[in-house]
Specification:
The complex is a heterodimer. Chain A is of the alpha+beta class. Chain A contains 10 helices and 23 strands. Chain A folds into 2 domains: 217 residues, PmbA/TldD superfamily (PmbA/TldD fold); 235 residues, no CATH class. In chain A, strands 1, 2, 3, 4, 5, 6 and 7 form a 7-stranded mixed sheet that branches. A 6-stranded mixed sheet of chain A has the order 12-11-10-15-22-21. In chain A, α1 runs parallel beside α2 and α3 crosses α5. The relative contact order of chain A is 0.14. The mean pLDDT of chain A is 95. By secondary structure, chain B is α+β, with helices and mostly antiparallel strands. Helices cover 22% and strands 41% of the residues of chain B. Chain B has 3 domains: 209 residues, PmbA/TldD fold; 120 residues, no CATH class; 99 residues, no CATH class. The mean pLDDT of chain B is 95. The radius of gyration of chain B is 24 Å and the shape is globular. Classes of the chains: A alpha+beta, B alpha+beta. Chains A and B meet through β1, β2, β3, α3 and β5 of A and β2, β3, α2, β6 and α10 of B.
Chain lengths: 463, 442
C-alpha cells in the first residue's frame, strides 16, 4: 500500500517540530452488504474504503489527519500540516523498522472475495426457507449478510511496522409476527472474525426458527408490569449488560479523564465476590478478536475484575501516557477516519458454580431476560438502560409466562455488587459497539447471571 | 475519476443507466480537556458512490479510491445487480423542472484561525466549570467543522452540485453532590462562526446539570407526562421511520394503509421542510437529484403521505417526495427538517406545569435506539426530569422508564407548548403534554 521507505520518511517529517511519537495507519477495506426481504434479494452492495491516517503525539496531545490520496506528495503534505501544530525543536526521529510478521491466529478458509454474490445470497435463502411457512402469523422475514476484508499497515516512529488482514462475516435475521392487532419482532445474529466457512458450520435453519419463535412468543405475551425485582439475565447476548453497564466505564476514554465511576479503584472491591470479568481479544475466530490492535500491539486476555477486585482498565497508547498504566492491546478504530482509542474486543463474565436450573429454582419472583436487546450507558454516571427482547416471568421458582416490553435500568456499580448467582453456561453474542472511535465488532458474553433489586420498566398496568 | 469513461464502459456492458454521486468533505475537530488541547484532527476525504441499473435491477458500489479501475467497478455492479430478485423498479433521475436556490457556504469558518477556535473552547470549558462549584468535570468540549460538497452526475444528463458549511460545539458537564453524579450534554450548531456564544452555552448546560442533582426515582404508576421540547424531539427522532416509504414497502410500519386516515390527535401537524431557512440541514435537492419541497406528513391528525425516494415512489405508483438521502452508501428515505406544529392555542411550559396535580416533566430520554420499536410504535425509554406536584416542580427524577405506544400517545396529546425549537437531530418541536403514560420506577 505504502512502501516502508515512504512510511519512515512521512513519520520522520511529522516529527520535525517537537512531536515525540508519530504513527501511520493505512487501510484498504472492502465491505459487502446483502439483504433478503419477503423472499427476494433486495440488496447487493459493495464499498471500498481507502485511505491513510497520520497522528503525531507530544506527550498526550494528539494532532491527526487523514487523506484518500496515498501519493508521496500527499502524505508528506499531511505530515507537514500536522507538524505545524507544534512549534518546538525536533526531539525525536523515526527509528528503523523492526518488522513483526503476524502469524494469524484466525484461520480463514473462504474469504469474502472467493465467493460469488450468488453463493453468498444462498445463505440468506437458507434462513428464509426455514421459516417462510413456519406460522401464518409471520408477516415479514428480513435476512441480512455483511462481510468485510480489511488490510491494514501500521507503522510508527518507535520502529513498529506490521501488516495484518482481518475478515468478518455477520448474518442477521429478523422476523416480524402479527395477529392483526399487535406486532412483535424477533432478532438474532451470528458473526465471527472468519470467512464464510463460519456459516457452513452453523445450523442456519435452527437459528432462523429461534428468531421466529421469539417473535411468535412475544406476540402472545402480556405486557411486563414494571417495578424493582430480581432479574435473571440469560447467557450469550445477555453479556451486553456487562459490556454497557460496566466495561465502558473501564475504558481509558473515561478513566483517563477521571470521569469514570471506577477511577482510582484498581485493587479495590467493585463487584460481588463471585464476579470475574475478562476482555479477551485473542480467541480464535471470535467476532471481536484481532491479531494486533489498531496500534499494532498484540491483543491480550485482560482480566478486568477477578473475584470482585478491579485488576485492569482497557488502555491504548496515548491514554497510557496519561494514566501511567500499561497498554492492553485494546486500541481500536472503525477505519482510518477515526482516531484509535481503548475499546473492547470479546468481553464476558467467567463461568460460575451454579446451574441455570438452580438459578431459576431459587428465584421466588422476577424477570427472566432470555434475549436482551441493545442498550446504552452514560459513563459519567454509570446509568444504563437495556431493552429485553424476550422475557418471561419467574414465579415460585418456575418460568411461568412470556412478558414483553420490559426494559432494565440501573447503574453499573450497583449491578456488579448485586450479582448473587452465576451459572456455568458461558456463551457469546455478536454486536457492533459504537463509541468515540466509531462502530466496531465486539462480542458480548456471559453465563446466566442473577441480579437482585433491578428496576424493570414495562407498559403493563398492575392488575 | 473519469465519469464519462465510466458511463461509457457501463453502457457497453449493457447497463441501462448509471449515476455517480461524489462527496467531498473537509473538516476539523478540536477537543479541549483540563485547559489544554487534547486532540486536533483535520480531515479530508472524498467518495464516489456509483449506482447502476442492469436488466432492471440496481446495484451500488462506493469507492474512496479515485483511481479505481472502471472495468472493476462495472464488473462488481453487474454481478451484484444480477443477484437481485426483487420486484421493485429502479430509476436514475432525469431531473426536476426547476430547483430551489442552493446555499452559498459561509467562508467565515476558513477565515477564523485555529488558535481562535481553541481559545473559544478553552473559554467555554472555564465558564462551564465556573458556573457552579458542584460541576467537577467537563469531559467533552469539542469544536467540529464540516465543509461538504456534493456533485451528482448521471447518464440521463443530470449535473447538480450543492455545498454546505457549518460547525458545532458540543459540551458535557458532570456535577456531583454527596454520592450522586449527574451529567448533561449540549450541542450548539451554527452556520456562522460569529454566532457561537460561550456564555450562553455555559449557562444552558450549567443550569441543566445542576437542576438534576439529588434526583431519585418515583413510584411505578401512570402519570400525566410533559415531554420538554428536546426530549420530545428525541422521541420523534426514534420514530421517523414509521413515515418512511421504505418501511411501507417492507410492511414494517404501523401506518401501512392508513393514508388519509386520522392517526394522531387533530392538534398535531407534522411538516417535513428541506428548505427551512436557518437549518443546518438545507437541501435544494435530495441525493437522487429530486427537487426539494415542503410537505405536510400529518395534517391536523390526518396522515397525508409517506416520505418517498424514487424507488419507493415507483412501488406505490406515486412521485418521489424528494426524501431520498444517502445513509452509508445506500439511498434510503430520510426526513430533512421534521417539525411538529399545531393550529390550536399553545401554552407556555410554566402554564402546562401549573395545570398538573401530580405528574412528570421529562427532560431527557436515553436508550431510544433499543427501546423503540418503529414496527409497532411501542417504546420504553430510560428517562429523567422532574416531579410536578400541585402545579409546581418539586424535585428532580432519574432512573425511571417511560413506556407507551407512539400512536396511542399522539392521540392522547393534551396540550402543546409555545417553545418550538429545531434541534440538532433535525426534529423541531415544542414541549408536549400527554394525558397519561405508564412509568416504572420504585
Amino acid at each position: 500500500m505504502v512502501s516502508k521507505e515512504l512510511c519512515r520518511e512521512v513519520l520522520d517529517a511529522a516529527l520535525k517540530s517537537g512531536g515525540d511519537f508519530a504513527e501511520l495507519f493505512v487501510e484498504t477495506s472492502y465491505y459487502n452488504n446483502y439483504e433478503l426481504a419477503a423472499g427476494k434479494i433486495t440488496k447487493a452492495n459493495g464499498n471500498h474504503l481507502f485511505g491513510a491516517s497520520l497522528r503525531v503525539l507530544k506527550g498526550a496531545l494528539e494532532v491527526s489527519g487523514y487523506t484518500n490520496d496515498l501519493s508521496r506528495e500527499s502524505l508528506l503534505a499531511l505530515a507537514g500540516k500536522l507538524a505545524e501544530a507544534y512549534t518546538d525543536a525536533r526531539v525525536a526521529s523515526a527509528k528503523p523498522f523492526a518488522e513483526t510478521p503476524i502469524d494469524s491466529r484466525h484461520k480463514i478458509a473462504k474469504k469474502p472475495a472467493d465467493l460469488s454474490t450468488a453463493e453468498k445470497v444462498a445463505y440468506l435463502y437458507k434462513a428464509y426457507e426455514a421459516v417462510k411457512d413456519y406460522s401464518p402469523e409471520i408477516v415479514q422475514i428480513i435476512a441480512a449478510l455483511r462481510d468485510d476484508s480489511q488490510k491494514v499497515l501500521i507503522a510508527n516512529s518507535e520502529g513498529r511496522f506490521c501488516e495484518d488482514e482481518r475478515y468478518h462475516v455477520l448474518l442477521q435475521t429478523s422476523v416480524v409476527a402479527s395477529d392483526g392487532k399487535a406486532t412483535q419482532t424477533g432478532f438474532d445474529s451470528k458473526g465471527g472474525h472468519a470467512g464464510y466457512e463460519l456459516l457452513d458450520d452453523f445450523d442456519i435453519p435452527a437459528f432462523a426458527k429461534g428468531v421466529a419463535d421469539q417473535a411468535l412468543t412475544m406476540l402472545h405475551a402480556d405486557e411486563m408490569v414494571g417495578g424493582v425485582m430480581t432479574v435473571v439475565v440469560h447467557n450469550a447476548f445477555g453479556g451486553v449488560l456487562l459490556h454497557e453497564a460496566c466495561v465502558h466505564s473501564l475504558e481509558a476514554t473515561s478513566v483517563a479523564k477521571g470521569t469514570s465511576v471506577f477511577c482510582g479503584k484498581l485493587g479495590q472491591k467493585i463487584a460481588s465476590d463471585i464476579v470475574t470479568a475478562i476482555d479477551d481479544g485473542t480467541i480464535a475466530n471470535a467476532w471481536g478478536s484481532l491479531n494486533v490492535d489498531d496500534e499494532g500491539e498484540p491483543t491480550k486476555r485482560n482480566v478486568l475484575i477477578e473475584n470482585g477486585i478491579l485488576k485492569s482498565y482497557l488502555v491504548d497508547f496515548r491514554n497510557s501516557r496519561k494514566m501511567n498504566h500499561p497498554v492492553t492491546g485494546s486500541s481500536r478504530r472503525q477505519s482510518y477516519k477515526y482516531s484509535p482509542t481503548s475499546r473492547m474486543t470479546n468481553t464476558f463474565f467467567a463461568p460460575g458454580k451454579s446451574t441455570f436450573e438452580e438459578i431459576i429454582a431459587n428465584t421466588e419472583y422476577g424477570l427472566f431476560a432470555k434475549k436482551m436487546g441493545g442498550g446504552s450507558v452514560n459513563p459519567a454516571t454509570g446509568e444504563f438502560n437495556f431493552a429485553v427482547n424476550e422475557g418471561y416471568l419467574i414465579e415460585n421458582g418456575k418460568i411461568t409466562k412470556p412478558v414483553r416490553g420490559a426494559t432494565l435500568v440501573g447503574s453499573g456499580a450497583e449491578i456488579l455488587a448485586n450479582i448473587d448467582m452465576i451459572a456455568d453456561n458461558l456463551d457469546f453474542g455478536y454486536g457492533m459497539c459504537g463509541s468515540l472511535s466509531g462502530s466496531i465488532p465486539t462480542s458480548v458474553g456471559q453465563p446466566t447471571i442473577r441480579v437482585k433489586n433491578l428496576t424493570v420498566g414495562g407498559r403493563g398496568e398492575k392488575a | 475519476m473519469n465519469y464519462e469513461l465510466l458511463m461509457n464502459k457501463a453502457r457497453e456492458a449493457g447497463f441501462e443507466a448509471l449515476e455517480i454521486y461524489v462527496s467531498k468533505k473537509l473538516g476539523m475537530q478540536i477537543t479541549v480537556f483540563g485547559g489544554e488541547v487534547d486532540q486536533n484532527n483535520i480531515t479530508d476525504s472524498q467518495s464516489f458512490t456509483i449506482r447502476g441499473i442492469y436488466k432492471g435491477k440496481m446495484a451500488v458500489y462506493t469507492t474512496e479510491y479515485a483511481a479505481e479501475d472502471p472495468d472493476y467497478i462495472v464488473e462488481r455492479l453487474k454481478e451484484n445487480a444480477g443477484a437481485l430478485t426483487t420486484d421493485e423498479e429502479f430509476a436514475i433521475f432525469e431531473g426536476s423542472p426547476s430547483y430551489p436556490e442552493g446555499r452559498v457556504p459561509n467562508p467565515i469558518f476558513k477565515q477564523i484561525a485555529v488558535s481562535e477556535k481553541i481559545a473559544l473552547l478553552k473559554g467555554l470549558e472555564e465558564k462551564i466549570k465556573a458556573y457552579d462549584p458542584r460541576i467537577i468535570y467537563v469531559p467533552h468540549c469539542r469544536y467540529n467543522e464540516t465543509n461538504d460538497a456534493v456533485e451528482i452526475v448521471n447518464s440521463s444528463g443530470l449535473r447538480l452540485k450543492k455545498q454546505n458549511s457549518f460547525a458545532f460545539v458540543v459540551a458535557q458537564a458532570v456535577a456531583k453532590e454527596g454520592e450522586q453524579t449527574q451529567s448533561a450534554f449540549t450541542i450548539a450548531l451554527k452556520l456562522d462562526y460569529r454566532e457561537f456564544d460561550p456564555d450562553e452555552i455555559a449557562k444552558e448546560i450549567g443550569k441543566k446539570v445542576i437542576a438534576k442533582l439529588n434526583a431519585k426515582p418515583v413510584p411505578s404508576k401512570s402519570y400525566p407526562v410533559i415531554f420538554e421540547n428536546e426530549a420530545m424531539s428525541d422521541l420523534l427522532s426514534a420514530f421517523y421511520a414509521v413515515f418512511s416509504g421504505e418501511a411501507a414497502v417492507k410492511k414494517i410500519t404501523p401506518l401501512l394503509g392508513k393514508e388519509g386516515e386520522k392517526i394522531f390527535s387533530e392538534k398535531i401537524t407534522l411538516i417535513d421542510d428541506p428548505l427551512y431557512k436557518d437549518a443546518i440541514n438545507y437541501h435544494p435537492f435530495d441525493d437522487e437529484g429530486v427537487a426539494s419541497y415542503t410537505k405536510k406528513v400529518v395534517d391536523k391528525g390526518v396522515f397525508t403521505t409517506f416520505l418517498h425516494n424514487l424507488k419507493t415512489a415507483k412501488y406505490f405508483k406515486t412521485k418521489s417526495t424528494g426524501n431520498g438521502f444517502k445513509y452509508g452508501s445506500e439511498i434510503g428515505v430520510h426526513i430533512t427538517n421534521f417539525c411538529l406544529t399545531t393550529d390550536e392555542p399553545k401554552k407556555s411550559k410554566d402554564e402546562m406545569i401549573k395545570g398538573v396535580k401530580e405528574g412528570l416533566l421529562i427532560t431527557d430520554l436515553a436508550g431510544l435506539h433499543s427501546g423503540v420499536n418503529p414496527i409497532n410504535g411501542d417504546f420504553s425509554a430510560q428517562a429523567s426530569g422532574f416531579l410536578i406536584e400541585n402545579g409546581a416542580v418539586v424535585r428532580p427524577v432519574t432512573l425511571i422508564v417511560v413506556s407507551g405506544n407512539l400512536l396511542k400517545m399522539m392521540n392522547a396529546v393534551d396540550e402543546i407548548g409555545d417553545d418550538f425549537k429545531l434541534f440538532h437531530n433535525n426534529i423541531g418541536t415544542p414541549s408536549v403534554k400527554i394525558a397519561q403514560l405508564p412509568v416504572s420506577g420504585l
